[in-house]
From TrEMBL:
Gene3D superfamilies: 2.20.25.10, 3.30.300.20
Pfam families, alphabetized: OsmC
Protein name listed in UniProt: OsmC family protein
Source organism superkingdom: Bacteria
Amino acid sequence: MQGRVTWVNGLTFVGEAGSGNSVVMEGGVKNNGIRPMEMILLGVGGCASYDVVSILEKARQDVIGCHVELKGHRPDAVPAPFEKIEMEFVVRGRNIKEVQVARAVELSAEKYCSASIMLGKAGIEIVHSYRIEEI
């Protein structure tokens, strides 16, 4: 995996991934882009969501929608690394079996999501929960 981050001006940067995709990042002064710590939070949410949806589809659950609500807790100090991340998965669909959602979230947390496993090994508390919205 490769990437490049290029300074644009002020505190604005463009990150380019080896895949060819890019994102604008900013230090929070002018709000021209995502802040780097927000990228980490969204990255862990994206990684885990990919797992949960993939596992539910393999389990033949009729998933219509899925999102994860994220809360990152950081101290009011510098540096301000994450101390805790809360992830609540909201799965929408028809006849979704709770046991399947619980298993998908558990498998993501303990076996598949490289991002959350890495952060957990770094001492960040990661709390997973879920709710099902029946359509």
